[in-house]
């Protein structure tokens, strides 16, 4: 049986974290994924570790901003070791850094390969998590995601499938293309046109328009994905999202 995970960014607007962890444990989650803001404000690692242990949760993966990953590697490695994390992903770059030049994306890939060295040396999986901007047209036949991943064969991919769709692409094509690089996937859904406008058009897993049965079967069959992470960028009710999503995921 799959141990489903939950991206804690989904609950950033519903403090305190301790209540969120208890809620997730009660719903049957076994893993959580951290995010940059959590690490930036982490004053008491022991308290977080105790809270996770008390709820039988494992922070197996985490998102860490590029600058923090580059400039505070010793700190992130210490957190990863203390929490027995398995993988860390750079989740995005800012809008002002999203170039239309292929050379800039190639450089990002090379920079990530350099940044990743201490994480790889420690035994962690290190890689990239996509949004939709990696599928924009640039002055190359390749998409930005291709150019990023060309930086190193060691760069792993956490595929955010719904963002691939938002980028106008067929997710099955990209799953097939990078099957050997995909180690994790974000499970989220897209609401029917005009619905959930107060939640930026996202839907709880199983409540949207995506063919998750086919997508999940393909991820399991073709990729090395070990981590399946629920995420909603802007839920109005995080318990509703967490509950509906894990129940839907169990049917996939």
TrEMBL record:
Every Xylose isomerase-like TIM barrel domain range: 70-240
Keyword Isomerase belongs to the record: yes
MF-aspect GO terms: isomerase activity
UniProt-listed InterPro entries: IolE/XylAMocC-like (IPR050312), Xyl_isomerase-like_sf (IPR036237), Xyl_isomerase-like_TIM-brl (IPR013022)
Pfam families for the chain: AP_endonuc_2
Superkingdom classification of source: Bacteria
Family matches, as SUPFAM superfamilies: Xylose isomerase-like
Keyword entries, A-Z: Isomerase
Membrane-crossing segments per the record: none
Keyword Nucleus recorded: no
Protein name (database record): Sugar phosphate isomerase/epimerase
């Amino acid at each position: 049986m799959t141990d489903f995970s939950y991206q804690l960014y989904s609950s950033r607007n519903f403090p305190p974290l301790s209540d969120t962890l208890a809620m997730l444990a009660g719903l049957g989650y076994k893993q959580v994924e951290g995010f940059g803001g959590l690490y930036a404000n982490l004053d008491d690692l022991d308290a977080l570790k105790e809270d996770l242990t008390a709820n039988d949760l494992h922070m197996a993966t985490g998102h860490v901003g590029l600058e923090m990953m580059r400039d505070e590697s010793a700190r992130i490695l210490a957190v990863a070791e203390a929490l027995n994390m398995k993988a860390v992903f750079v989740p995005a770059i800012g809008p002002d850094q999203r170039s239309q030049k292929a050379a800039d994306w190639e450089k990002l890939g090379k920079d990530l390969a350099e940044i990743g060295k201490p994480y790889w040396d420690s035994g962690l999986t290190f890689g990239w998590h996509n949004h939709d901007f990696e599928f924009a047209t640039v002055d190359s036949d390749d998409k930005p995601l291709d150019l990023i991943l060309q930086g190193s064969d060691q760069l792993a991919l956490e595929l955010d499938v719904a963002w691939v769709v938002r980028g106008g692409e067929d997710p099955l094509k990209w799953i097939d293309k990078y099957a050997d690089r995909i180690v994790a996937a974000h499970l989220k859904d897209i609401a029917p046109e005009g619905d959930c406008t107060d939640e930026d058009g996202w839907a709880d897993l199983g409540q949207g328009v995506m063919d998750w049965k086919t997508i999940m079967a393909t991820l399991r069959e073709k990729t090395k994905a070990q981590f399946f992470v629920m995420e909603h960028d802007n839920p109005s009710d995080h318990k509703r999202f967490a509950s509906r999503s894990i129940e839907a995921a169990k049917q996939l």
